[in-house]
Amino acid sequence: MNSPSKHPKAVLWDMDGTLVDTEPMWIAGEHQLAEDHGAVWTEEDSLHLVGSDLLVAARYIKERIGGDMTPEDIVDFLGGRVATALREQQEWRPGARELIEEYRAAGVPQALVTMSYGYIAEPVVDALGFEAVVTGDSVTQGKPHPEPYLKAAELLGVRAEDCIAIEDSRTGAASANAAGCFVIAVPHAVAVPEAPFRAVVPTLAGLTADHLGRLAGLGHE
């Protein structure tokens, strides 16, 4: 990413596990579904799905638990639980809101890029405000495909190569890297491997926009 500016053209944020700690909500719902169907559901099953397109995850769940629910039914069940919980309370990940406010003050456009559906993300969008929002029900190909991040950059009128994406999962990081973004990976529920055009940090707490810019190589010719 070559730019004389210390800031990217835009910042693209994942939601689940990056902005808000929703992973326990999804996992609790998966365990409930398995229990209702008399099936075994493991931690490995849950971690395998972190960051995935919801229908892809639901098809995996159906294979594991059986029963008469369609993948769409499974998405509705899980998504409804998470949406209700988010309307009641948002548990922000450390440092995320502070960075959003700093980028906003600097005039850097920001987008939400999440595989959660629009009705699930609505409380977060209402609380934080974004110049663009891409949700799992607004794309044809979900993460790890690059489409979500390419669409977000297009909506903001910038090139994905000029954006920083902030992600917590290997699936999301792969999506953003495939689109051409520099990725700041903040692993939460699952590990994210090192890769080109990617910096892995333990937390956003205490980091500033300048810190992220330096990690992405901005402000240097």
TrEMBL record:
SUPFAM superfamilies named among the record's database cross-references: HAD-like
Organism name: Aeromicrobium senzhongii
NCBIfam families hit by this protein: HAD-SF-IA-v3
Protein name: HAD family phosphatase
InterPro entries documented for this protein: HAD-like_sf (IPR036412), HAD-SF_hydro_IA (IPR006439), HAD_sf (IPR023214), PGP-like_dom2 (IPR023198)
CDD domains: HAD_BPGM-like
